[in-house]
Amino acid sequence: MDHMTRTREILGQLIAYPTVSADSNLALIEHLAGLLADAGARVEVFRDPSGGKANLFATIGPDIDGGILLSGHSDVVPVADQAWTSDPWAMVERDGRLYGRGTCDMKGFIAAAVALAPVYAQKAIARPIHFAVTHDEEIGCLGAQALAPLLQARGVKPRVAIIGEPTLMRVIEGHKGCYEYSVHFTGLEGHGSAPERGVNAVEYAVRYVARLLELREVLKALAPPDSRFEPPWTTINIGALVGGVAHNVIAGKARVDWEMRPAQPGDADLVKADLHEFCTHHLLPGMRAVAPMADIITEVIGEVDGLIPTSENEAREIALALTGANGAGLVPFGTEAGIFQAMGMQAVICGPGSIEQAHKPDEFIALEQLAEGIRFLERLGDRLQVAP
Fold first, then answer.
1. Which is catalytic among the residues 105, 136, 137, 336?
2. What is the pTM of this model?
3. Is 3.10.310.10 the CATH number for 178-304?
């Protein structure tokens, strides 16, 4: 069976697992573990504390440091309230494209890597090839953040990480971080006719949002003059402000969901320190003067560092050689690459498909893109093969 046929077969199997971040990915992980074990890989599965989700880590080749990690996430975004032309959990081909949730982001890369695993196992490769398949990337890279310390504790030290997010096979050497928060405001309910007798959580949430908007302008002024990001500054986005129950009730609860995407080290610390001071010295005193139990609690949804471009990067050089590209770029979206970089790996992002198709109804990957991804992985095996 040729590599494209096998990749399509595996991809169809993976699409059939509805691994939305809110649900379990265990069935998919167990399926991949079986495929990799059959190919000759040494496979480990790490369940999360709930037992309902898991990361997979597998190795083919010599048991030494300095290997190459192929990484992808198993979870996908929901399909609820999206107008799909076909069943999102049953892959179909139309007009040279494979449709289904996750075809592009990013089960296509995972399927291609697993399809090539038997080839890697049959070659006498000089460096190990590792496979990492993680959970919950879409909601804060929780799986990769849990996997990293486990690998470090085992003394696993890959040198290169290739994250196969959809880049149209462009080589990407950097992206901003992604820090996500939900801030919970607890006030004191009361009758709307006497607002001074209560603590309106929505009003204090609005003041918090106003401070975020002020910080957004501060961050623009701090943009590094040589930044290659677009936009070049650290961004802040308010995703939701919810609270209250009725027109005539002082809102006792409110929540602000927001994110920032740091363009440089230090910006996140500046924002967090400013908000801590603002809440401690400006919001909470007024709230607690009326209701001592009033509070503001910040829930950290995820804090994922960006991928910092570096002058020396073997992952970039390998990817450029395999694709024939002349240079590497940056992307605005976040990935798990920064987590692996923090472990000491040199990381790059390069995978089939377009991010423009991710998270949309009728998500697809073009067969031409999938073929490019397969050729990339074939060349990787050839590059690592020991000369006879």
1. 137
2. 0.86
3. no
